[in-house]
Structures are given as structure tokens and as C-alpha cells.
Amino acid sequence: MADIGPEEILARFEELSVLESEIEQAELEIIRTQYTLHAPIYKKRAAVIAKIPHFWALVFEQSPPEVDTYIQPSDSKVFAECLESLDVTRFEIDDPKGSPKSFALRFTFAPNDYFEDSVLEKKFYYRRSLDGFDGFVSEPVKIHWKKGKDLSDGLTDAAYKLWQAQQKLGNGDNRAAEKRLPEYKSLAKKMESDVGVSTSFFTIFGFVSSFRYVSAEESQKARKIEKENSEKRRRGEKVEDEGPNDDDEDYQETEVFPGGDEPAMLIAEDMWPAAIRYFSKSPSTALYTRERQANPIGGAFQRFPLMTCFHPS
Amino acid sequence: MADIGPEEILARFEELSVLESEIEQAELEIIRTQYTLHAPIYKKRAAVIAKIPHFWALVFEQSPPEVDTYIQPSDSKVFAECLESLDVTRFEIDDPKGSPKSFALRFTFAPNDYFEDSVLEKKFYYRRSLDGFDGFVSEPVKIHWKKGKDLSDGLTDAAYKLWQAQQKLGNGDNRAAEKRLPEYKSLAKKMESDVGVSTSFFTIFGFVSSFRYVSAEESQKARKIEKENSEKRRRGEKVEDEGPNDDDEDYQETEVFPGGDEPAMLIAEDMWPAAIRYFSKSPSTALYTRERQANPIGGAFQRFPLMTCFHPS
């Protein structure tokens, strides 16, 4: 095992690449199977949850630390007052041009004092860039904040405006032009002065990427190349290495929710599927369960402060 | 939605319980499908990996923080010198009395200066206790350390000896007798004086539970009761709540690797399946890949310190 020549090591590396893409395909197949198998159960669950007041607010109250760290007290208040449902969909599950890993978080809200929207949906696209990035990108979602109620302190609006301005520039390598946009400059400046300020969870709706935005077209092209390389490796042919990533650090200058795909994934892959377990862990639920002989339901629920600010829908 | 009576809330809670067990069943089914679908690929992978020196040492070098925190420099040295393979099996995948979630980590080592064993296998049983614990338990594995080479500083031996003494006590509620065992007292004392000392990763072979040990018999009984309750709920009958957990904190007095199931799960569910990705992230691999035109393989590999201490098998 120690005596191995450079040519042989190279051959082993090519074999590993082939296996890696087989494993990737098998993983995608599992995501598809799981989604199909679980969909009817989650549909039934949604119907039951809809009849339990504050279900999702109580789940978010029990968030794992990686999500909880992004939820400010004012966000919890919004969840408690008006979050009606959360749904997770894999909207590209059967789309050969997309990825089964892509997912959307769809929040439904009762009428409230904060924003006009009754649905806020954030899509995370699993894409591949031509320079080797594999991960989630997203398009900023506009939240129609009511006057003086913007919990993101202007960040979701700024991200959305920059996005629109970038779209007007059109395709191609317009990075230099992007950086000259007034929307770019003002957001970058705001981000710089905001360093260290805790931002609202709702800012996640402005998230773009932990790398840079990758279009559907670029991703399809990159996957086609990857597939061709993978075929070549399978046939034992040599494949040119992908170049190293560009220095894309400056894209994070205008990222309003750096690393936003991480908590989003945790919500989609842990909190949402395991929501009943999170709900059961809630002190309110436990309080209710333990004391239900002694107290009417209203008693237990109302004693918990979260419960006092709910607007019936 | 806000106007909901106590009886209705109760009914909704029962419905959630039924759904929770349906989701659990669907999850187990996915684990089975995944295992079957992936097994042949991982078998091929093992054959390729066996020809790449230090593959697993390089993977462990890239451990995520939750695992890395348990790996001391002396552990890395053992991995670099003699870890030959790592395999993960779900040994109860088709056992109706067991659980598809149970898994084993099987490490294979070249002859080395530290211990006599060529295989160290640690089994994590997914079990349920009669008082409501659901999680992993394990039996201490004896490591035959060579003289003066015990990286766990006596902890794996002490855990194994206590385990053997407990087995001799036989079944039944012998907790009081257990606590009177000299093996219990000496391990508890050692644990107390060891507080704050970093222990070797190899101590994980002495891990028992984050709760207390749960036997296969207790687990089968607990699952039978849970199944009956679940049937009752499905029929709309009321079910007695399980009692609250006993105060089992004192079991942690003799747990040599508290929370050991967490890094074990990460190894089984993340590092092992994604090993090729971890391997590719290694600086040694990158060094090799980038400089392969300029340097012979030996050059790049040997320049990396990890590579200097490998004993050919």
C-alpha cells in the first residue's frame, strides 16, 4: 500500500471521481423516493397542524442553536402573532434541468401589523457554477413592510432593488458595471456600517448566495460539462481540472444574510420534517400536557407569554 | 383557529402522535432503501480506497468541528500511522427486533505500537427505554493497549471492567448494587478527578449511553407498548401518558465519553458517506493535485508531515 507510483495514484483519483458521481446520483434518487413517500403524510399533518394554534411559533421557539441565533425577539413576536403555516417543497424534484436538492420555504401569515404579504416564499436553487461552486443560490424576495415596521431595517428592500437593477444590466460578465450601480454602492456601504448589528430573521428573504448568484443557464452548462467529464473518467480518459474559483469574495459585500442557506437547510431538512418532535419539546405543550387535568386548556396556553399576542385569523 | 376547546386540542394531539409514528415508519423505510441502493457503490469505493495510502487519515484530518474536537494530536498520529479502513454497517437493517438506525463503526488497523487489535468495532444500538428514552446505547469495547501506550489513560479498560461486573450482577433493578461495585466507585472517582482533561478519541470505544444502558429486552418491550399505544390512538382511544424519565443523571458519573453518540453519528451519516469529498478537501490531496506536473507523487506526499509516519502493511 505504501509503494504506489504517481500514475497509479492518478488512476485511483479518477476512479474516486467516478464513484463520487455515482454516489451523488444515488443520493438524488433517495431524495426523490423520500419526497414521494413522505408527501401524503405531510399533507395529512398540515391539516392537523392548521387546527392547533401557534404550532409553528412553538416549533421555532425550540429551534436548534444554528437557527435560533438568527431569530430576534421581534421575529418571535411576529411568528407568535401571525405565522399560520410553513411548508417545504422540492419544486425541481422531477425537473431534469433543476435539482431534487432545490427547496422552497413557504410561510403563510395572518393579517398583521408588519407587512402586507400573506405568503412569503423563498426558493433555494441548488446550482453549479462554471468555476466549480456547488450549492444554493436564491433571488431576493420583496417583503411589503408596513410603514415604520421594517424589521430588516431596509435590508430586504435594498437587496431586492439591487437585484432588479442587476437584471436590467442583462447577461454577460457585467461585474464591473454591477459594482458601479448606485444600488450596489449604497447596499455595500450600509452592510459595512451594519457590521456587528443583529439582523432580523426576515432578512433571509434578501439572501442571494454564499458564493455569488448562479443563473439556471450557467448551472445547466456546468452540469453538462461535469457529466461529460464524468463519462470521460468512466472510459479512463484524462480530464482537465477545473480552474480554481475566481476571487468572488466581493460578492459578499452586498450579501444581506451571509450563510443564509445554512439555517434554511436546517429548517427544510430537520425542523420541518421533525416539527411534531420540536412542538412536543415546547414548554407550553409540556405545561399543557402535564397540567391538563388541573387546568383548562386556555389556562395553560394563556399563562405562556407567547400566547398573549395572537391575532385570531 | 384561536377558539378551540380543550377536548379538541386533546384530539389534535392524539392525531399528531399517530402522524409522528407514520413519519417514523417512513423514515425507517428510507434508511432501508438508501442502505440497499448505496451498498454496492460503497463496496466498490472501499476497493479503490484500499489502494490509496492514508485515505482515512486524510479524511479525519478534515473532520467537521463536532468530531475534530475529540481528536487529539496523538489520535491523529495513530490514524496516520495505521488506520487502514473504516466501514459503517447497519447491522439490524432487516432485524424486526432491532432498528435500521442502529449502526457500527468498524476500524481496521495495520500492526502498530499502540494496541494488539487489528479491528476495533463499536456498535451503536438504537433503542427505546420503558421510561421514554429513544436513542443510542452501546457496550464498552476492550482495546488491548500495549504497555504504557493507553491513549485513554485507563478509561476504556475501566469502562469495560465495570460493564463486565454489571453483567455478573444479572438482570433486574440492580442499580443500588451496581453503585456499590468497586469498579463503579473507582471509575466514578477517576471521572471526577479527570474533569477538564482532554481525552483520546479512542475513549469512544468505552461509551455506553447519554442516558443509561437499555437492554435489547427492555427496548423490545418498550416498542411493543408504543406500538399498542399507537394503535389505540389510531382508533381514537385515549392512551395513558408515559411517566416522566427517572432521574438518571447519575449514570453519567461513569460515562467515559459523554455524548459519544453524536460524533459517532456524524462519522456514520456524514463523514463516511461523503468521504471522497472530505478527502478532496485535504491540503495533502490538493498539494498533490496542483503540483503533480512539477513533482513526483512521493515528493508531494512526503512533504506533508502526516505522511512520514506510515508503517507499510
Automatic annotation (TrEMBL), chains A, B:
Against Gene3D superfamilies, the record matches this protein to: Nucleosome assembly protein (3.30.1120.90)
> Which stretches does UniProt call biased (Basic and acidic residues)?
222-231
| Biased segments, Acidic residues type | 239-253
What are the BP-aspect GO terms? nucleosome assembly
On the tree of life, the source organism's domain of life is Eukaryota
Instruction: Output a single Gene Ontology CC term carried by this record.
Output: nucleus
Which intervals of the chain are annotated as region Disordered?
222-259
Q: Which family does it belong to?
A: Belongs to the nucleosome assembly protein (NAP) family.
Q: What is this protein called?
A: Nucleosome assembly protein
